[in-house]
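We close this part of the discussion by returning to an individual protein. In the encoding step, the backbone of a single protein was reduced to a row of integers, each denoting a local shape. The sequence in question and its structure tokens are set out directly beneath this paragraph.
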Amino acid sequence: MNAAIRPAARVVVAQAGLGLVSSAVFFFTDPAAGKSALMAVLCVLLPTMYYAWQQAQSYNAVRALAHGVIKMALTVFMMASCIVVIGIDPVGFFVTFAVMHFGYLVRVWFDQNSTKL
């Protein structure tokens, strides 16, 4: 088995780490905000995991675009479901949602620094 982690999986791991840390911080300040932060983690991670899985299957530009659109639609649908049906604390949800998107930058930063070693 190859020990190297695929680039898309690195993004998922980085986003999961950032989201869980943010959720823990919000949970200790306010349990309702912590629950909302966990909902944001699910809204980001599930579509990202789907997209990473699709990218691992095969890379084709048209398929990548189509699955990117599906990923975005899933994210929007899940966010709308959380906001309308479940009800969320907006601060915990949207701050965690924004923090998790820094997972893309964390991955780029680590890739740039790993080549200098």
